[in-house]
Amino acid sequence: VSGGARKVQEWVYEWGLGEKRKKLPPGDLGWPILGNMAAFLRAFKSNDPDSFINSYIRRFSRVGIYKAYMFGTPTIMVTTPENCKQVLMDDEHFVPGWPKATCELVGKKSFLFIVHEEHKRLRRLTSAPINGFEALSTYIEFIEDTVVSTLEKWAGMGEIEFLTELRRLTFKIIMKIFLSSEGDSIMESLEKVYTDLNHGMRAMAINLPGFAYNRALKARKKLVAVLQGVLNERRAERAKNPHPATKDMMDRLMEAEDETGSRLSNEEIIDIMIMYLNAGHESSGHITMWATVLLQDHPEIFQKAKAEQEEIRRNKPPMQKGLTLKEFRKMEYLSKVIDETLRVVNISFVAFRQATDDVYVNGYLIPKGWRVQTWYRSVHMDPQVYPDPKDFNPSRWDDLTPKPGTFLPFGGGSRLCPGNELAKLEISVFLHHFLLGYQLARVNPTCPIRYLPHPRPMDNCLANITKISAA
Ligand code: HEM
């Protein structure tokens, strides 16, 4: 029976391709409805998520492209640097193709749906004010003040969920950039809602009470309502005072005009904000936690990173108060620690695209309309690319310029993460102060890791933060 059921699945999706189906990459479409999701979930719920792609490599060799049926649709998975690079660089043949759950939660007017020229325009409009040199020099002071006062506070709090607290910290920072003039109450209500939204993001799209996706849909509704309220108030204010003294991202989005003079609708502004506020704090919070934990678990690396920060502190001009971007650029070893954290942790283990036409990758067909997954995780965990890939070894980056496609923690091509520099700055400022003055003691150091939606210890890194010297 099982063989028969699997044949039906192949017949439904492959038969229409005619002779071309012989060009499909190796793999199978699994069971009707479920496809290969059971094997995927089994691996990602175990302590060895790499076993999923490794089973393809074992069965079909390292061709780096396999067929499967995932998240309710036939899918081609690309897993090697060359193949990922080809997909990421080809905007004509690949557009975003995220699972239904993600799309409905992030919104129809977010970048997940916007393509080509319109996508480029909105990227231009939003990326310089986040990631540009000028922008980063403006934000560094706020980031540092927030980090310093937050670390002080934690040190007096006893046991905390370190990850939960870091997510709050990174949320404060992204809110400052996007909605600087709003008060604490807006921030608190948004921050809580985001936890639910994120949990539903990579869950199965089951809209029934009790399921993560159902809670997330409700969270999205709340977010839309809060942001709509803020937008209404702002439009009323701007009618009275069209030139405010300072502008945040919401102001920029409200003012943006295309060549014909038309502006973004409320719906567009809200979806872009929801996307940015989410993407702009979850990953950075997680990576900051993992970098701290990995440093704490590797005393030699900790000492080396600390020595570099001490040097930076020693060389600081006496009149200069905070950190500068110049000093940030001098944190060479810390930068390797962060890159190595991004590589081993794989916060975004995969990205989703859809083929707009038949495309050949490594000689195999990706049929028009099929989903494509770029497996960033398998690139980073491939022993042919990174020897002993599970080892946390920042020194592997000494004199290493990664070849194209081999280092994709922020994706690549036209959809490269627009917050990559900001994220690295936040993480570095945090680690600077942590290394110089604090220690982390986890309550359950061997706590199991949950890999979906993002890798995290199941106890959210319950820990005590203690101050060891004046930072
Ligand atoms: C360590 C932190 C971060 C990691 C690991 C990360 C990772 C990624 C990755 C892998 C992508 C590409 C997904 C794809 O290929 O489709 C991406 C896209 C994106 N990221 Fe980040 N990100 C981080 C921080 C941030 C921050 C701080 C912001 C906002 C300020 C941000 C905003 C975005 C947005 C808006 C996109 C969509 C870009 C587009 O489709 O054009 N991210 N991020």
Automatic annotation (TrEMBL):
Cofactor(s), names only, from the UniProt record: heme
CDD domains per the UniProt record, alphabetical: CYP90-like
Entry GO terms, CC: endoplasmic reticulum; membrane
One GO molecular-function entry: heme binding
Binding locations of heme: 417
Major subcellular location class: membrane
Subcellular location: Membrane
Pathway: Plant hormone biosynthesis; gibberellin biosynthesis; Hormone biosynthesis
Alphabetically ordered keywords of this record: Heme, Iron, Membrane, Metal-binding, Monooxygenase, Oxidoreductase, Signal, Transmembrane, Transmembrane helix
SUPFAM superfamilies: Cytochrome P450 (SSF48264)
Domain of life where this protein originates: Eukaryota
Membrane topology according to the record: Single-pass membrane protein
Pfam family for this entry, one: p450
GO BP terms, alphabetized: brassinosteroid biosynthetic process; brassinosteroid homeostasis; gibberellin biosynthetic process; sterol metabolic process
Family as reported in the entry's similarity comment: Belongs to the cytochrome P450 family.
The protein, known as: Ent-kaurenoic acid oxidase-like
Lineage of origin: Eukaryota, Viridiplantae, Streptophyta, Embryophyta, Tracheophyta
